Amino acid sequence: xMAVMRAAADLxxxxxxxxxxxxxxxxxxxxxxxxxxxxxxxxRQPEKKRPLLRGLTQINLFFEPSxxxxxxxxxxxxxxxxxxxxxxxxxxxxQKGETLIDTxxxxxxxxxxxxxVRHEHSGAVALLARHVECAVINAGDGRHEHPTQALVDxxxxxxxxxxxxxxxxxxxxxxxxxxVARSNILLLAAMGARVRLVAPPTxxxxxxxxxxxxxxxxxxxxxxxxxxxxVLRLQLERMEGSFLPxxxxxxxxxxxxREKLAxxxxxxxxxxxxxxxRGVEIDGTLADDxxxxxxxxxxxxxxxxxxxxxxxxxxxxxxxx
Length: 321
Ligand code: CP
Prior knowledge:
By secondary structure, this protein is of the alpha/beta class. It has 13 helices and 9 strands. Helices cover 38% and strands 14% of the residues.
């Protein structure tokens, strides 16, 4: 791809924030993936620390639960020698009525260099970014985007298959409520992969035509010949009303099993961003099969990707110091 090839010449990542994949050019995505690749080996060494962000302050501000994203951002910041603070939202002044904007302005007054924010409302992280002077990273906002997860997934695929361009990727399950799906659709399309959504009609976004993806409502059709099968968590907590007859019926029709996976290419890779519900959207033994499943690779690469994002977003700040 021409746009990607230009990266080697004179372009480099210069975004102020990472709020979504939507605004990233293919060469910028490639630059982040290349940077992250370099951190994978470092993270496997006994000595994992680098002084790159020494003196900088990173605040993690998670308004929704997280295991993978919050922990990997904390590790990423610490491995690059930043001072990392995890703000405890449940015991913060927000419980006394302080607004999101006032919280942002308050934290900004303490001169952080990076804010990593997860929020239950789409657009909340972008809103917060308009009220602070530091870099803001979207760690997942409502149903909108989860850009670092899409970068993690792309790096996982690239390391396993050697490419993104030309692959056929099935994204299966609760696409409607998934910020991971949206960021992955944008990233995979930008990098020349074909995306097929496989979901019941009730769990396909109403604006799906805008994304230029294929849609299948049956796993046999949807998985036919695909290179990658990404399974999404059924987000029961975001569902108002009846989207499914029952969880049992859902697993029967859409849960990924070895039988359903047999429709994909023989070496098709199984992925899940986590947290996963075994026996709901995926069979537990398949998820644990390291020959087919890259789920723990995704977790491992999460730290490297977040180190790369922290490096890229603080580059100008570090160079100006
Ligand atoms: N994939 C993901 O965002 O997981 P967490 O909710 O554990 O961060």
